[in-house]
Structures are given as C-alpha cells and as structure tokens.
Amino acid sequence: MAANGIGDEFDLIAKYFAPLAAGAPGALGLTDDAAMVDVPAGQRLVAAVDTVVAGIHFLGDDPPGDIARKIIRVNLSDLAAMGARPLGLLLALVLPRDVTGDWMERFAAGLKADIDEFHAPLIGGDTVAGGGPLTLTLTALGTVPANQVLTRAGALAGDAIYVTGTIGDGALGLGVAKGTLKGLDQAHQNYLLGRYRRPRPRLDFGVRLLGHAHAAIDVSDGLIADLGHICTCSGVGARLAAQAVPLSDAAQAALGLGEGKLADLLTGGDDYELLFTAPPEDDTALRAMASDLAVDVTRIGSITDGGGLEVEDGDGSESRIGKGGYRHFR
Amino acid sequence: MAANGIGDEFDLIAKYFAPLAAGAPGALGLTDDAAMVDVPAGQRLVAAVDTVVAGIHFLGDDPPGDIARKIIRVNLSDLAAMGARPLGLLLALVLPRDVTGDWMERFAAGLKADIDEFHAPLIGGDTVAGGGPLTLTLTALGTVPANQVLTRAGALAGDAIYVTGTIGDGALGLGVAKGTLKGLDQAHQNYLLGRYRRPRPRLDFGVRLLGHAHAAIDVSDGLIADLGHICTCSGVGARLAAQAVPLSDAAQAALGLGEGKLADLLTGGDDYELLFTAPPEDDTALRAMASDLAVDVTRIGSITDGGGLEVEDGDGSESRIGKGGYRHFR
Q1: How much of chain A, in percent, has pLDDT values that exceed 90?
Q2: ipTM score
Q3: What's the CA gap between B326 and B308, in Å, rounded?
Q4: What is the per-residue pLDDT across B141-165, written as a single tens digit (0 to 9) for each?
Q5: b/e map of B279-306 (b: 16 or more CB within 10 Å)?
Q6: Which CATH class is domain B160-325?
Q7: Strand ordering across the sheet containing B309-312
Q8: What pLDDT, on the 0 to 100 scale, is given for residue B27?
Q9: Closest-CA residue in chain B for A233?
Q10: Facing residues of A310 across strands?
Q11: Strand A85-95's sheet: what is its strand order?
C-alpha cells in the first residue's frame, strides 16, 4: 500500500494522522483494530457517512486543506440537522499514486484546523494508495440527548418553515471555482468561494433547535429538493415564498449582473444551512436563540397538510421552480 | 449521481439498501441525515473502518455477494479483536458506471446474508456512481462492557501466545482465486477459496476473551506482522514456534505439493483469526471456552520481555522468517 514519496500506511498514520487523534485517548493512537468511545449516559449515538470523489464532488486541484475541511463540515452539518454534538471522526482515504508529501501536509493541516474548531477528534481511519481518483469517506459520530429526536419526519401542517444564513452561495461559489462565474468584484468572488469550500455546519444552533423544531434537514441537495425531503418524510406539503429566501450581498450582486437566476440558487445545493419547521408560537424563542448565537434565521414559508410543494415566486408563475424541484420527490 | 440502469441514489436506497436497515428503527429507513443508535448503559462504543478497492483488495470479477460479505467480515473481525459485539454498519459505495441491476441484487443479497447472520444491521450509507473503480468503505460500530479493555497493547512477558483456527488459508485462497495455485484437488481448492472470500469473524470467542486475554489482534497483515504489532504496542518481544502454527488439511496439502512455503503462510495475511496473549494459568479456562464454541485454539509461542520477535522454525534457521516479518515493525 505504499504510495510514492509518502511512505507506507504506517508512516502515514504516524506522521499525519496520529497527531489528529491526540485529543481522544480511545483512538489508541490510531494503531489498534478499532477505536473506543464513551457515549455519555442519557445520550444517544448519531452516525453519518459521506463519500466524496475528485472530479465529482470537488475539483482535483482544489486546495488540499479545503478538501479536508469541506468533507468534515458537510458531515458535521448532517449531525447539526439532528441537533447532535460531534463525538469523533473516522476517515477512509483512497490516495492517487502521485500524491506528494506536500499535499498530505496541507491536507492534514486542514483536518487539524476543523478537528480543533469543532471539537471532533479523529478516532479511526484507513488509507489505501493507488486505487483510483482521490476518494474520501468520512464517518461522523455524535450524540443527542436520548429523550430528544429531530429528524426530517416531524413537520406538521401549520408549522413555519425557516432557514439559517443565506441560500445559493454554494452553487455560485462552485461557479467561481470553475471560472464560469465572472464579472463579480474580487471580494464577492472570495466570499462565494469561501462559502463553497468551507461551509459552516450550524452545530450550536442545531442543538438549540431540540425541543423547538418539529423537523430539520441541512441544505445539501438544494433548498427545494431538501424541503421536498421533509415533506415526503413527514407526509405533508409546503408553500415556499421564493422572494423571502435570504440571499447574500454577493448572491444579489450575481443576480443583478444576470449571472444565474433565483431558481438556480434555490435548487443549487451545497449550502449546508439548516432548513427546519417549527410551530409559529415558537417564533419569538427561535429568534432569541438565533440572536444569542449570531445566526440569521429567516421564515420562508409554511407547512401545509398536503398538495405537494408549491413555490410562490412573487410574479404569479407559481409552479415554475416547483416543477424543477419535484424530480426527486414526486 | 445516477448510474446506468440502476436509477439514482434514492432508487438505490429504496430498492437495495433500505430493506437491510429493517432491523434498526434508528436507521430511519436510511432516508435521514444520520442514524441514531442506543449504546446500552454500561457499554462503550467501538468503531472500525475499512476501505477496499477493486483490483487491490479483491478481484473485479469476484462474486458480488462475496465482495459484500468479505468487507463486512473483515470489519467485524476488527470488532472481534477488541471483544466487541456488533451494533450496526455504515456502508459507503463508489460504483463504476457499468454496474448492473443484477450485480446490485447479488451484492445486496450478500450484505443481507451477513447482516442477518452477525446481527449487524445497516444503519447508514452513501452511494456515488461513476467515480472510479468499485470502492467500498464500511464503518462497523460495536459495543464492549465499559469496564473491559482488550487491545494490542496489554501483552506481558510470560504470556502464552495463541491463535484461533488455521493460518495461511487466506493467502492460499487468493492463489486459487487468481489461478496461480493449481494441483490441489477441487475440495481443497473450494475450501481455501471460501476461507479467502468468506473469512469468519471470531465474534463470540472475542467476547469470551475479555477478562482472560491481555492483548489481541485479528490476523490481517499476516501472523508475523500482526504479532509484531502486538509486540510494538505492548513494548514486549515474542518467541514464535513456527511448527506449532496450525494449518488446515488444504494448506498442508499445498505445502506437500511444493505450492508455497510455511514462511509464505505465516506472512500472507487475510486470515482473520484472532491472535492473542494470555497468562499461562488461564490455559485451561481458554481451552474450555474454545471447546464451548467449537473454535480451535492453538498455543504458538510466548511473550518475552524484549529482544524483538524471534521465530523458531524447527530446523535451526531461527531468524529466517523473522527478518521478513520485521519490515513493518522494526
């Protein structure tokens, strides 16, 4: 399993990965068959897994540190959508033959930055060299209080629909990364690229949603598709006010320049914001929580008792976006 | 992410994977962001991850059901080496573009057979189509009593060294699969192929080792290398009696025909037997446990207080195998 220039699997573990497990005694320095972790009493384990492949989910020449940070953040966003706190990460890597020590160092530095920031130590992993394009599989373990459940499935007719942060930056940031989105000033381009490469999992806000939100999901497939997932799993419909969907200054500037349409932003995905539903009477409490954590929360629609997902876009063409978003869930 | 002929990711989950999660309500039908699992009070979580890639760890035209079963068994073997019982599995798949519905069905049938046999429900996963060679990453979660620890690190000078089952069948079975091992009768070939493709994780015996064994590992890198891992992690040496290492009838027949040498079997790996150390006074108890479970256990050496790993091969050339096995751990 030796890869050129970076040593064998044991060298890789010792040099790059074992230091990332320093905060987790149960990781056993990544030298044992498995890791051991205590799940605190009264807590339930939450587990999510994501695989990303160069050329499909990211560009092969993306900065190595950002590749590392994005897969961590995408997985932690799954935990956030269930109100979970991180417990630890297991990372399986398939490295291409031409990976260099410099690349590994920058990759490991990205891992370390997010492991430290999100208190999610590396507790296990596997490395294979020379098996195809760079492929990363991350399993994120977390915990939720055993008496609390937040899934996609609890939305009730009459619930208000909310989203954190802004929508569409991920899709536009991909355009910047690919060089297809031009004409924006450099600051807006940098902002969008940062949102695409280093989305922020809403972990603290997700924990606070427990006991308030009826259903939640993180926006990965696209706002419309992910709202559809909530509707399907909850057996309800939804009415979304497209004009209410919060956009960043950079996204507004892009739309102003004719770079994409609102519909593209609502279906583009890769936002990793939390989309959730809650009873209208919790509105004040939710806004206070959001203010505490300096997270923007915007109400963008309502859950209905059926009839699928309707999108009002403010100029009468109600079904235009809706039809595009129906593909996955109708 | 649609793959030719097998539908998109949502179709794949509904058709092939959701039925495998039927035994685990916390898997949420594999439709949510993450799975929820209860770790029973007094138990500690154990987590292991393994990635296998077509062309490296298995042959692309291996039976799909056996590919599925082997990665499950290899991971459960990691749990067995820590005395853990399975709790659930998360499977991430990168599928080649030309995967067929028939292949998927046979793959899923293999998963189901082992999920049922080992009581390890599928609780989560991810699927990517068209990203390179078939790549499987399995995360196995298990539990051990919180007051029990069995790792590679506890071996003490004076411990007896034991191994379950027989050694070398995995390496010989690979030869059968590749067509390089000929001359054996068909029954022996079938036996070795089965041992290579469907190794048996020693889960029940692993649980019974808690409180008896000082250190354990499953034999994946090869008996010599894995004994070396125990020595390194425990800070001890070992003296291994090569002639005492148990061989199957098929392996003895292969050696008799001049198909490979004993040294190849001791370094070949892929055995997934348990290699463990225990104080000599536990010998009677260990043999009774083994008899209870119809597992063969053989004493093959002793832990020493230093001096590395010595291999006695019975004809005076003491260091010959040892030197070959030193590569990874000296």
Answers
A1: 70
A2: 0.89
A3: 9
A4: 999 999 998 999 999 999 999 999 9
A5: eeebeeebeebbeeeebebbbbbbbbee
A6: alpha beta
A7: B215-218, B274-278, B160-164, B297-304, B237-241, B309-312
A8: 75
A9: B31
A10: A239
A11: A122-129, A85-95, A135-145, A43-53, B35-37
- Alpha-carbon gap, residue A280 to A214, rounded angstroms: 11
Write the CATH number of the domain with boundaries B9-24+43-145.
Answer: 3.30.1330.10
Which residues of A, range 100-139, sit inside 8 Å of B by Cβ?
123-128, 130-133, 135, 137, 139
Q: Are B159 and B302 in contact (CB under 8 A)?
A: yes
Take residue A73 and report the two structure tokens written for it.
């953040």
For A280-291, the pLDDT digits (tens) are 999 999 999 999
**Cα end-to-end distance, chain B, whole Å:** 45
Given a contact cutoff of 8 angstroms between Cβ atoms, the answer to whether A309 and A326 are in contact is: yes
Chain A, residues 6-35, CB within 8 A of chain B, namely 8, 10, 26, 28, 31-35
Instruction: Tell whether B221 is within 8 A of chain A (Cβ).
Output: no
Note the pLDDT of residue B324: 40
Select from A33, A53, A217 the Cβ nearest to the Cβ of B94: A53
Write down the pTM of the prediction. Answer: 0.90
For residues B178-205, b (16+ Cβ closer than 10 Å) or e, as one string? eeebeebeeebbebbbbbbbbbbbbbeb
CA distance A100 to A105: 9
Question: Residue B238's closest CA among B313, B157, B163, B183?
Answer: B157
- B107 — pLDDT class (breaks 50, 70, 90): very high
**HSE-up of residue B118 (Cα within 13 Å, Cβ side):** 36
Q: What percentage of residues in chain B have a pLDDT greater than 70?
A: 93
Q: Tell me: the pLDDT tens digits for A36-67?
A: 899 998 999 999 999 999 988 888 888 999 99
| Residue pair A262/A313 in contact by the 8 Å Cβ criterion | yes
- Second CATH level (architecture) for the domain A160-326: Alpha-Beta Complex (3.90)
Per domain, the residue ranges of chain B are 9-24+43-145, 160-325
Note the pLDDT of residue B318.
Answer: 52
pLDDT at B314: 66
Name the more confident of A107 and B259: A107
Lowest mean pLDDT, pick from A13-22, A68-77, A302-311, B80-89: A13-22
Give the distance between the most distant pair of CA atoms in chain B: 62
H or E, element range at A43? strand A43-53
Contact (CB<8Å) A49/B90: yes
| A9-29+41-145 topology per CATH | 60s Ribosomal Protein L30; Chain: A; (3.30.1330)
Q: What is the mean pLDDT of residues A297-318?
A: 83
Pairing of strands A309-312, B43-53: unpaired
Mean pLDDT of A302-317: 81
The pair of three-digit structure tokens given for residue A297, joined into one six-digit string = 């929360």
Q: Is the CB of residue B288 less than 8 Å away from at least one CB of chain A?
A: no
Tokens of B312: 């006695």
Decide: helix, strand or coil at residue B172: helix
Q: How many CB atoms lie within 10 A of CB A245?
A: 22
Q: What pLDDT, on the 0 to 100 scale, is given for residue A325?
A: 43
CA A102 to chain CA centroid, Å, is 27
Distance (Å, whole) CA A17 – CA A137 = 15
CB pairs under 8 A between A and B: 201
B93/A151 Cβ within 8 A? no
